[in-house]
Amino acid sequence: MKICVTGGSGFIGSHLVQKLLDKGYDVSVLDLRKPVQDVEWLRKDIRDDLGNIFSDFNFVFHLAALANARKSSEDPKLCYDINIRGTLNVLNAALKGDVERVLLASSSWVCGAQEGDVVNEMSPFHLDNINTIYGASKIGQELLCFSFYSEYKGPKYTIFRYGIPYGERMWRGLVVRAFMEMAERMGVLSIMGDGKQFREFMYVGDLAEGHLHALKPVAENKIYNLTGGRPITIEEIAREVVKHFPAKIDYIPQARVEPKIKRVHNWLAENELGWVPRTTLEDGIRLCAEWWKTLTEEQKLEEYWC
Predict the structure, then answer these.
(1) Among 230, 99, 80, 93, which Cα is nearest to 158's?
(2) How far is CA 43 from CA 11, 38, 96, 186, 197, in A?
(3) Which tens digit of pLDDT belongs to each residue from 123-137?
(4) Taking 80 as the threshold, does the pLDDT of residue 304 lie above it?
């Protein structure tokens, strides 16, 4: 089985590529950046016409995206070009190449428009509640998958709505990495507000593992939440980080309004795929700290793509 991973050189993509290689799959990476692993590199930009580039592949994991929500708000055109037009090009190429299935990385940010305070994959939507450019782009990606299959009878799809991942090779700006940098360089972790804000944080290795479960036929034309097993507060993350980087925790005034994030359950992923996140916060932060301490100063300043 041949599998292509768009964005396979990035944070989540590189972990997925390693999981696929470990299982014996024939893997290629479509990305502008050289892959972490020694695999076939298709050096292409998803904003360009991809032609028949996927003609030899059975599955395409489409992870290439502008994943930084703040950057999406600052530059909505860039967000549109990468996330919407890029997905359109991937689906066109998959259709031309007769790819069996495209597996799309969406986001739990879209769940803010679902009905209820606690939602799962089946919860209905109120699309007028989408309140970020990034969330709108992710809904747009999903709609393209639905409409391609409905109108052109292909490719089949699987959609993942990610929680907030952390782990080795995470990009600058993600809170775990930001806290490690603060602790190491300044000896202080600054938390905006009371630190009780929560997100569905999860270790990236668990997230990548969920993708492999979705290669099963039962996942065809389905949507799965792949989020953390419980809400994790910013304060909890800070307290784990200072176990590895001695520093004090400081609370500062809230500088911006964060969009409301609901509790998101992995009901379908657990029941159909048998997938649940297994890495504890303690173990996940330990793995991050061990990775961080192996890096040179130059590597710590490197911008991993997001």
Answers:
(1) 99
(2) 17, 14, 19, 39, 39
(3) 999 988 888 999 999
(4) no
Cα 9 to Cα 286: distance, rounded to the nearest angstrom:
23
Contact 126, 67 (CB under 8 A): no
In terms of Cα–Cα distance, which of 215, 211, 241 is closest to 226?
A: 211
State how far the Cα of 267 lies from the Cα of 128, in Å rounded to an integer: 25
Nearest to 101 by CA among 49, 35, 160: 160
Compute φ and ψ for 234, nearest 5 degrees.
-60, -35
Q: Tell me the C-alpha distance between 1 and 253, whole Å.
A: 52
Q: How far apart are CA 136 and CA 66, in angstroms?
A: 12
Q: How far from each other are the two terminal CA atoms of the chain, in whole angstroms?
A: 28
Helices (H), ranges, the chain: 11-22, 69-74, 76-79, 86-96, 133-152, 175-186, 204-213, 234-241, 267-268, 281-294, 297-300
State pLDDT tens for residues 181-225: 999 999 999 998 888 988 889 999 999 999 999 999 999 999 999
Q: What share of the chain is helix, strand, coil (3-state, %, to 5)?
A: 40, 20, 40
List, in order, residues 6 or more apart from 217 with CB less than 8 Å away.
Answer: none
Residue 25's alpha-carbon distances to 12, 29, 252, in angstroms, are 17, 13, 48
Pairing of strands 101-107, 201-203: unpaired
